[in-house]
């Protein structure tokens, strides 16, 4: 790796804090997206179930 690139990633000694913060933030964003998709799928499944139940109860 070139010295300039190493210096960039080291960030004057703060690289560990900076890159771990970026990694944590990215993890939280990905978790948020995953949880939102899962919640939407659960809501759609529940809505389909309720609709099916309503259709069955209509004579």
Describe the fold and architecture.
With 59 residues, the chain is mostly helical. The protein has a domain at 26-59. Helices cover 86% and strands 0% of the residues. The protein is rod-shaped, with a radius of gyration of 24 Å. The model has no long low-confidence stretch (mean pLDDT 94).
Please describe the structure with a list of short key phrases separated by commas or semicolons.
59 residues, rod-shaped, 0% strand
Structural class: mainly alpha
What are the segments in which pLDDT stays under 50 over at least 5 consecutive residues?
none
The helix tally amounts to: 2
Oligomeric status of the shown chains?
single chain
Tell me the helix content.
over 70%
Strand content: under 5%
Mean pLDDT score, rounded?
94
Q: Which overall shape is indicated by the principal axes computed on the Cα atoms? A: rod-shaped
| Helix-strand string | HH
Brief overview, please?
The chain has 59 residues and is an all-alpha fold. It has 2 helices and no strands.
Topology:
Blueprint: H1 3-10, H2 15-57
